[in-house]
Amino acid sequence: MENSEIPEPALEKPGDILRQARQELGISQSEIAERMYLKLSDLVALEENRFEVLKGGVFARGYLIAFARLVEVDTDRVVSAYDRLPSVIAASAENQPVKSSSIARTQKTGAAAVPAGIGLFVLLLLLLWWLQRSEMPWSDPAEQAPVVAETGSMMGVEPVVSGPDSSESAVEGDLETDSEPSVAESPESAGSSEPPGPAESIASSEAFESQESHEVVESQESHEVVEPLEPLEPLESPATDESMELAVDSQQELETLEPTPADPEEPLPGRVINAGSEQGALLEFSFSGECWAEVYDSSNELIYQDLHREGDQVTVRGAAPFTILFGDSRYVELLYQGNSVDIVPRRGDVVARMVVGES
Amino acid sequence: MFKWLRGLFSNDLSIDLGTANTLIYVRDQGVVLNEPSVVALRELNGQKTVEAVGIGAWRMLGRTPDNIVSIRPLRDGVIADFQVTEKMLQFFIAKVHKRSFFLPSPRVLICVPCMSTQVERRAIRESAIGAGAREVHLIEEPMAAAIGAGLQVDDATGSMVVDVGGGTTEIAILSLNGVVYRESIRVGGDRFDEAIISYVRRRHGSLIGDVTAERIKQEVGCAHPVIEQREIDVRGRNLAEGVPKTFTLNSIEILEAFQTPLAQIKQAVVRVLEHSPPELASDIAESGIVLTGGGALLRGLDILLAETTGVPVVLAKEPLTCVVRGGGIAIEQMDRRTLQLLSTK
């Protein structure tokens, strides 16, 4: 069947070729067997193409080559005819180490998948490790915790503080130094958005000054405007000095312009306050300590009240006579129209209430 | 640890570390490398570096300047130069793992001469480990040759193998996956080459090199007079005149030159048959002797041995690669744990 392409050796089998050649030469089977050192039965089996009785393919092939040499037949022709036998093809396929082991091939296929899987897994681990290493400053809770704590306490002013603190972590990579300011700026910008509050209050206080209304109610309103700065007061860190000074300056400005009650804890120097109306009798107070003061004019209307500290200088004008109350008369000196007035406190107390400017 | 990881990306190898040629069989790929066991070393400021390995170094044999020396690190089937052998193995292992990203670290099965000493086997093992192998197993060459030739070595019948290599001729009687009797003589293809060189110098007064002697052996060499006679023109340096001279050699002359090594092989084969147990000798007489190895390609050697022993002698299919193919089959059987013939000494 497979020899249909080649007409001449169409049906040729190695045994047939050799038998024909031997008969043409007139050599007997026994003579060939003797010269090949083979048993006669094996030679007969060769000629009858019964190779299965021989001990394995290697011997059958070798015998055929030796037989072909003796009968002067091309050994390649005999061997190729032998190799084309279906039984030989099957046997060689079974015996070939490359093609033989379907088991081994399956094992190898599995074995190839396992290394590939493990290799991918290892690469994934390496990638994760690298990413983790590069992002470590952000993911490390030990470093992140102070930022969070300060964020909570500083109410948006913390970027000023966290900047220097994070400078160490910023050394670790450009990624950190690039990205960190962006994070730090967002609260800072939030902080910078606050100044309009004080600025507005300053503007309103200036407007108030230009009106020179000297009304306590308005001064209280301006005091309320300043209130948003109060969260800054707990600041103790030197890092917040700038923002603190800004807030304090604006507040100082306010208080020099209007008689707003000062924060008792605020370590401010002596203030100079002008209150009351533009005309009328003049009262001048000089405080050497903390003291509460109230001034009522002739119509018994409260024209001035405030808590004062050491160094405060207050000038009040209004319609005399004035009814004045001092919380601690020990720390106050009083001048009425430029003349000193003795302050006599109540008996057994430092509180003094008096009437000045009676005609 | 890293060898294990690298081993995942390496193929199991069977290596026929021969005196003349090194063959490597890669599992599921077949014989992928067959190159001469030759290394060319360049010497520069007292430091030796590898210039070429394998076929490239073989072409340099006898054609090198002073600072390049082309050497064969194996002699008589065993390692003669440990470090160069290691470099050569490293080169060959890397060559069969071209597509590997990692440095290869394969499991290796190396075929060793059956009569090699423990020291020689240890040298081969250490050399392979130094070349990057993570596991080294050794197998005796006649056993690998028998498996590669297709003999049923696990049967309770005797088989006889004559493996004529480059440096040694290994003769063994096998039965039930074991070697019953073995003999190894340090006669092989190299000895035939030396015989040709000696003959040419003696008869023709000319000097020829190893490469020319190898070519003569392959083209006109024979071991029996009934083989077709051939002739070859050879150019060598005339010893008397000192100039190159051309002369002709024929098969009869080469046969005459081969008499000594052929006689040694014949004696060894007869000696093994004499020492074989009677039952196995009977099996061998009935079936025959199988010839393997590159030396088996010498024309008429099977006829010579058949005449000498009175036993059928057959040439294995592809005798040059029988040993390494047998090692490849042994590697696959090793994983299935059906083969208990691997010598790990």
Q: How many individual β-strands of chain A?
A: 9
The percent range for helix content of chain A is: 40-55%
The helicity of chain B comes to 25-40%
What's the total count of β strands of chain B?
18
Average of pLDDT of chain A: 66
Describe the structure.
The complex is a heterodimer of chains A (359) and B (345). Chain A is built from 16 helices and nine strands. Chain A is α+β, with helices and mostly antiparallel strands and 359 residues long. The radius of gyration of chain A is 57 Å and the shape is rod-shaped. Chain B is of the alpha+beta class. Chain B has helices spanning 2-8, 55-60, 82-95, 118-130, 141-149, 189-204, 210-220, 251-257, 259-275, 278-287, 301-309, 322-336, and strands at 13-17, 21-26, 30-36, 39-44, 47-53, 68-71, 74-75, 78-79, 107-112, 135-140, 159-164, 169-175, 178-185, 206-207, 231-238, 244-250, 289-292, 313-315. The radius of gyration of chain B is 21 Å and the shape is flat. The model of chain B has no long low-confidence stretch (mean pLDDT 87). Chains A and B meet through helix 4, helix 7 and helix 8 of A and helix 11, strand 18 and helix 12 of B.
What is this structure, in a nutshell?
The complex is a heterodimer of chains A (359) and B (345). With 359 residues, chain A is an alpha+beta fold.
Key words describing this protein structure:
heterodimer, A: 359 residues, alpha+beta, 4-stranded antiparallel beta sheet, 16 helices, 14% strand, rod-shaped, B: 345 residues, 5-stranded mixed beta sheet, 18 strands, 39% helix, 28% strand
